[in-house]
Amino acid sequence: MDGYDFKKIENKWQKKWAEKKAFEAEKGSKKKKFYALEMFPYPSGKLHMGHVRNFSIMDAVARHKRMTGHNVLYPIGYDALGLPAENAAIKNKSDPEKWTLKCIDMMKEQQQSMGFSYDMSSEVATCRPEYYRWNQWMFLKLFEKGIAYKKEAPINWCPGCATVLANEQVEEGKCWRCKSVVVKKDLSQWFFKITDYADELLDDLNKLDEWPEKVKVMQKNWIGRSEGTEIYFKVKDMDLTISTFTTRPDTVFGITYLVFAPEHPVVKKLIKGTKDEKKIQKFIEDVGKKSMIERTAEGKEKNGMFTGKYFINPVNGEECPIYIADYAIMDYGTGAVMAVPAHDQRDFDFAKKYKLPVKVVIQPKGKMIDASKMKVAFVDPGILVNSDEFDGTDNETAKAKITKWLEKKKLGKKTVNYKLRDWLISRQRYWGTPIPIVYCDKCGIVPVPEEELPVVLPKGAKFDGKGNPLETVKSFVNTKCPICSGDARRETDTMDTFVDSSWYFFRYTDNMNDKLPFGMKEHKYWMPVDQYIGGVEHAILHLLYARFFTKVLRDIGLTAVDEPFRRLFTQGMVLKDGVKMSKSVGNVVDPGLIIGKYGADTARLFILFAALPEKELEWSDKGVIASYRFLNKVYNLVADNKGKIISVKADAGKLDAKSKYMLSLVHKTIRNVTDDIDNFRFSFAISDIMQLCGETVKFAKTAEDKMHKAVLSEAVYSIIKLMSPFTPHLSEELWTMVGGHDLVSLSAWPRHDESLIDKKADMMDKFVKDTASDIRQIVDLIGKVPSAVNLYVAPLWKHKIYTVAMGKPKNLMGEIMADAEIRKVGKDASKYAQSLMKKPVFVDVLEPLDELSALKESLDFISDEFGCKVKVIRAEDSDAEKAKRAEPGKPGIEVL
Asked: Which of 5, 305, 481, 713 could form a disulfide with 488 if both were Cys (CB 3.0 to 4.6 A apart)?
């Protein structure tokens, strides 16, 4: 496809940006800072469209902030340790370091080809010893404070490969590589005590006003704080007491059985010597092959086995059976669950399956429940029955009363429980940060002295897929004790790569510091991150660990920052043919091919224009071509009219009507685009620029005198600057073409003059955008892609009533009924007028014909936004229910 020479232009400006170090953050600046950061990528070697979208969003924000006078830190880095490199080493019998560094070079080259405005001097790669040295330094600090500790924990063990597997390497209970059945084994491993910070992590979510609510809810649920009661149960004929955690002590008289998590250490004692011991062990092995999602999913059949043992309910002395069940897990409460089938659906289903008793202890007020006829559990509030002295008490009051009774009898206690568990950081892998610990038979667990850091990953490890490659390097494993100088063995576990990404944003602020992870002065200026962008799939682990690490670093005196990310934005996925792009589906679009055929600016423009950033983006080849054509249109607009561009400011008082409209549109577009970029409405911003460009092309044809040329010049200058965050290469070229000095990327962002904006045209524009926003809310609410949208414009009689009501008359009904046209709709008019009497605030609205005209002129915009046909209908011409709901300024919206 013919067009401007984007390859030449892109190469030219990328080279100039690099030569001028245009995007390096200023040191010692007095400017207001802006720290722009996207979640750094794993260097797989090639950018995918998800990367391109993520980076294009952040780059647009960073470029805009530079032009608005901020000192911007927009760093580049790579989350470069981890399993994929090790798997590649096993597959290709290669060195994971060489593979990773090669991938970093490839990815960096592609990032630079997209024109992203990174501060290249800030680069960080977590696989380099100068970075992971500080992981080790922090580990030692956490070890000193007791936050890093070691204990036994279950791991996935492949007997075929004789190695530990990560969860993602277990496929349907089998090893991804040799297909052996994976088993659970206990192994002594390192943990970080994140649970010490559970309350602070939960409470400080309230500080994060500019985080998506869904992310905060996900973190809140993951931490899972719940207040409840711990109850003690004695096992019959054994010197053993079991404790369970419950949020429903009001149901304790209704317990008919108890379940243990199969992996609970007590289970071995319970089943030892019983007739079904072997069967139960086989059941435990089978459960170990299931994921936690399979075990706990609602609606999925729950399985269990009777252990042969009974416990005694402390409140009534009843003997009840002890089961193990797949739905009970060690990671919540005590790993033992009291079961009340009458008042918990999961317990009810299990009881019915295994023919266990159901005992009602809560009745709805004024009604009786027959346990033998129950089809589902009764889980609503009610009054206690069959509960001895607590009969007749409402169940909410009973919770506190029964807990106090249990505490008095020393049969239980009030307690707080968390779903959150300490962070297991041990990985039996090579390609990670070595844990700086040695083991000495004489001195025990000994930390490596700080002056000996970093403990560097050794060369010569064997990558055959069996065991931990670090253990094959004897010169690494065998070492001397730092205390007694005797023979010692080095720790061969490496750290979870989430450690690397839990503090990298601090390192960016001072990445060359070799005395500390980062300096106080440097990070104090930049932190916290002002805008963080990444996928919602990182809502829990990465973001929670980063928050935890920040608080730990604060407590060891490295920072005063409480929360690392002020504002968080989570972008949507990129789809093709309605499905997420992936190699397995075969619907991947290679960004390199798009760049080669249409240029980086086209790729960036399409990515930002095709959908709002938080929504899923459907890839469209036609959309890419349309974006490319638009850029050619802009190029031709400037190239064809550069002789008309003058540096004279338009005198608003001497303009004709056509020029006033043009100038109004320029300033309205500046205002709207500025606001849209600040609020991540890039598609709206680009749409406004496209409209301005279209009008400027028409205006340029008759711009012959000085007055018209001045207006044309202001329009062209504005278009170039407004496009710069989205299409920086073309903008630089056009800026030079019209005589601009230096880089447009570093020029001042244009400012609008409100007095030059046509108020009616402005109202029409706002009306259309508000309508589009309302449609979006409805589409999100119903959760489906619309096939069509009908918009109903309010009738004239409603506009008349609204206008009268705005004046707050003493007798609204009297005034409106004086109008013969309004009297024709009698009851409807009266009902609408009464609704307006309750309205506290009125805003100016358009006339009915102007509303109709505004929507009809914007049909293409609304249709493109929602990918469906849109009709604009006068409410008077339809009997549809939505037509009756149309109001001035608020069309009736029917999504089909």
From this structure: 481
Strand partners of residue 78: 125
| Amino acid found at 389 | E
Neighbouring-strand partners of residue 598: none
User: Can you name the residues that pair with 323 across neighbouring β-strands?
Assistant: 259, 306
Q: Determine the Cα–Cα distance for residues 235 and 309; give it in Å rounded to an integer.
A: 7
How far is the C-alpha of 632 from the C-alpha of 37, rounded, in Å? 31
Q: Quickly count: other Cβ atoms within 10 Å of residue 31's Cβ.
A: 12
pTM strictly above 0.90: no
Strand partners, 413: 230
At CA 228, angle to CA 226 and CA 231, rounded to 5? 140
Helix (H), strand (E) at residue 487: strand 487-490
As a whole number of angstroms, the distance between CA 54 and CA 537 comes to: 13
Measured between alpha carbons, how far is 569 from 613 in angstroms, rounded to an integer? Answer: 9
Q: Sort 408 into a burial class: Cβ within 10 Å, 0-12 / 13-18 / 19+.
A: exposed
Label each residue of 349-395 as H, E or C.
HHHHHCCCCCCCCEECCCCCCCHHHCCCCCCCCCEECCCHHHCCCEH
Which amino acid belongs to residue 536?
A: V
Sort strands 33-38 and 531-535 into parallel, antiparallel or unpaired.
parallel
Tokens of 756: 């030059």
Q: ω before 262 within 30° of 0 (cis)?
A: no
d(CA 721, CA 67): 9
Q: Which amino acid is at 815?
A: E
Q: How far is CA 874 from CA 771, 800, 853, 857, in A?
A: 15, 16, 11, 15
State whether residue 65 is helix, strand or coil: helix
Q: Which of 73, 23, 43 is nearest to 511 (CA)?
A: 73
d(CA 451, CA 514): 12
Cα 584 from Cα 296, distance rounded (Å): 28
The CB-side HSE value for 837 (13 A sphere, CA atoms) comes to 12
Closest CA to 339 of 317, 322, 364, 318: 322
- Distance between CA atoms of residues 333 and 189, nearest Å: 21
Q: Helix crossing, 6-20 with 728-737: angle to 10°?
A: 90
d(CA 640, CA 201): 59
- Distance CA(236)–CA(657), nearest Å, equals 95
pLDDT score of 166: 66
Q: Are the beta carbons of 574 and 619 closer than 8 angstroms?
A: yes
Beta strands at 183-192 and 148-158: parallel, antiparallel or unpaired = antiparallel
Please choose, from the candidates 188, 186, 185, 223, the residue with its C-alpha nearest in 3D space to the C-alpha of residue 204.
223
Tell me the helices (H) and strands (E) count for the chain, helix number first: 31, 33
> Which residue intervals of 724-786 are DSSP H helices?
728-737, 759-782
Compute how many other C-beta atoms are within 10 angstroms of the C-beta atom of residue 536. Answer: 17
What is the C-alpha radius of gyration for the chain, rounded to an integer number of angstroms? 34
Cα–Cα distance for residue pair 163/170, rounded to 1 Å: 12
* Total count of residues recorded for the chain: 896
- Residue 191 φ then ψ, to 5°: -130, 155
C-alpha angle 576-579-585 in degrees, rounded to nearest 5: 90
Are 535 and 616 a contacting pair, CB within 8 Å? no
Instruction: Count CA atoms closer than 13 A to 741's CA, side-chain side.
Output: 2
Rounded to whole angstroms, the Cα distance separating 259 from 330 reads 11
Mean pLDDT in each 10-residue stretch from start to end of the chain (896 residues)? 86 97 94 97 87 95 98 97 83 86 94 97 97 98 97 83 70 78 85 96 97 94 93 96 95 97 92 93 85 71 93 97 91 86 95 96 93 95 96 96 97 93 90 97 97 96 86 96 97 94 98 96 96 89 95 97 97 85 76 93 95 88 94 97 91 86 94 96 95 94 91 97 98 97 96 91 86 92 90 94 89 88 89 86 89 91 89 94 94 94
Whole-angstrom distance, CA of residue 747 vs CA of residue 718? 12
